[in-house]
Specification:
2 copies of one chain form a homodimer.
Chain A: H1 11-31, H2 37-44, H3 48-54, H4 58-83, H5 87-96, H6 98-110, H7 112-120, H8 122-145, H9 154-164, H10 173-191
The first copy, chain A, binds a DNA duplex (30 and 30 nucleotides) through residues 7, 9-13, 16, 36-38, 41, 46-50, 52-53, 56-58.
Chain lengths: 210, 210
DNA sequence: CCCAAGCGGAGGATCTTCGTCCACTAGCAA
DNA sequence: TTGCTAGTGGACGAAGATCCTCCGCTTGGG
C-alpha cells in the first residue's frame, strides 16, 4: 500500500496522510479511481508533492483506499450480523447502509483498472474473501430462516448490489438518492422467499464473481 | 446528426456509413461513448478519415447512434405492447429484450457527456419522450391488471433498468450475462404486486428523471 | 533554538486523442 | 470502356491532459 515508514510520521504528516485517504475515498466513490491526482490533492488540502511522497503512484493510493474501505465494510457486516436478531435483518441493514459499500463496489467491480490492481494485492484479496464469507453466512442464515429466496447465493447478492450502487446522471442528487433507495427496496422485495418465477442459470457463489 | 447530403451517397459510402454506426453501437454499449474515434473506425473497417467525413465530430456520431438506437427500442416497445396479451407481459418482454435497451441507457443515463449532448437534441428528446410514454402506458396497464406494484411509476422502472444494465468487470462474459439475467429476474419479482414493504419516497414519473 | 522532516506547486516529460490533408481508388454516367 | 468526381485511408502535426520530479521554503519537536 503506502511507503511504509520505519520512523513514525511527524504529526502533521500523519494528519495529511489521513486527509488524503479521506479525500480519495469520497472522490473515488463519486467519480471513479481515475480522477487526476491533482484533484485529490486539492480536495485533501495538500499539494501534489505531498500526495506523491506518501503514495508513490496512483496504484499505491488505490490500494491504500481499498484496504481502508474494505475493512470498514467488513466491520459493518460483522456488527450487523452480531446486533440484528435475524440474518435477514442483518443483510437488509448491510445493504441499506450502502455508503461505504458503494466505494468498495466501485473499486472492485466497476473500474477495470482498479479491479486489476486489487486482484493482485494479497491483503485486499484476504479482506475481500472475508467479506464474502460474512455475506455467505448471512445469505445462508436468511435462507434457513425461510426469508431469503433459496435460489440465490452470495455472489448473486454481491453482483446485484454492485449494479444498484452505480451512480447515474440525473437531474438532482435528491432524485438520484431517492431512486437508489427505491431500487434497493424493490430489489430486497425481489429477494424475499415467495412463490415466484424461478431464476435462470444457477446460484452464483463467491468464486463465480472475481 | 450527420452531414445531410443533398446528393445521395454513393453505394460504397452508404455501406461504410452503416458499418460505422453498427460498430459504434456495439462499442458504445460495451465501453461507453468516449472511446477513441480511431477504435471505432477500425472496428468498422474504415479509416478515421472516412469516419470524420461522415460525422464531423464525436458529437455527431453519438447523436446518430442515439437516434438509431432509440428508434429501435421504441419499435420493440410498441411491438411488445401490441403482441403480448397483457401489459405486464409486454413490460417483462421489453425488459428482458435488453440488448438494444442497454445502449440507450448507457448513452442516456450513464455517461455525463453523452447525456448532455442528447439533452440538447430535439429529435432525440422527442424519441425519448415517446418511449417514456410507451413505458408509462405499460406501467399503468400492468397496475390496472393488478400485477405490477402500485407504488412505482415509469421513472422508477427506467432508473432500475438503467442501473441493472450496466456491465460489470467479471471473470467471464458468460458469468456476466447470467448475472444480469438473474438480476433482472429478481427485479421483476420485486416489481410484482404483493403484500410487501412500502417504498421510500414517491413514485418517479417520466419528468423526474432527466 | 536548530535542523531534518515535511511541504507546495511550477514546470518539463510523456502520453493520448483529435481531426486534417492529400495521394490514391473506385463507382457510375455516358 | 473511359473519365471524372466522390470517396478512401492513415500518417502526422497540433492541442491538451496528466504525470511526477525537484527544489526553495516552512515547521514540528528534541
Amino acid at each position: 500500500m503506502s511507503v511504509d515508514p520505519q520512523v513514525p510520521l511527524r504529526a502533521d504528516a500523519r494528519r495529511n496522510r489521513d486527509q488524503i485517504i479521506a479525500a480519495a475515498r469520497t472522490i473515488f466513490a463519486d467519480f471513479g479511481p481515475e480522477v487526476p491526482m491533482e484533484e485529490i490533492a486539492r480536495a485533501a488540502g495538500v499539494g501534489v508533492g505531498t500526495l506523491y511522497r506518501r503514495f508513490p503512484d496512483r496504484e499505491a493510493l488505490i490500494r491504500a483506499v481499498a484496504v481502508d474501505n474494505f475493512s470498514r465494510v467488513l466491520d459493518d457486516a460483522r456488527e450487523a450480523a452480531e446486533q440484528e436478531p435475524t440474518a435477514w435483518r442483518a443483510l437488509v441493514r448491510l445493504l441499506h447502509q450502502s455508503v461505504e459499500l458503494h466505494l468498495s463496489v466501485q473499486l472492485a467491480m466497476l473500474s477495470k483498472k482498479a479491479h486489476e490492481i486489487l486482484k493482485e494485492d494479497p491483503a485486499i484479496a484476504t479482506l475481500r474473501e472475508e467479506l464474502l464469507i460474512e455475506l455467505e453466512a448471512m445469505v445462508q442464515g436468511a435462507q434457513n430462516e425461510g426469508t431469503l429466496r433459496p435460489d440465490v447465493a452470495e455472489g448473486d447478492v454481491a453482483m446485484l448490489f454492485a449494479l444498484l450502487l452505480r451512480q447515474l446522471e440525473s437531474r438532482s442528487p435528491e432524485i438520484a438518492r431517492m431512486s437508489t433507495a427505491r431500487s434497493i427496496a424493490i430489489m430486497i422485495d425481489g429477494l424475499q422467499a415467495r412463490p415466484g418465477t424461478p431464476l435462470p442459470g444457477r446460484p452464483l457463489g463467491r468464486h463465480d464473481i472475481n
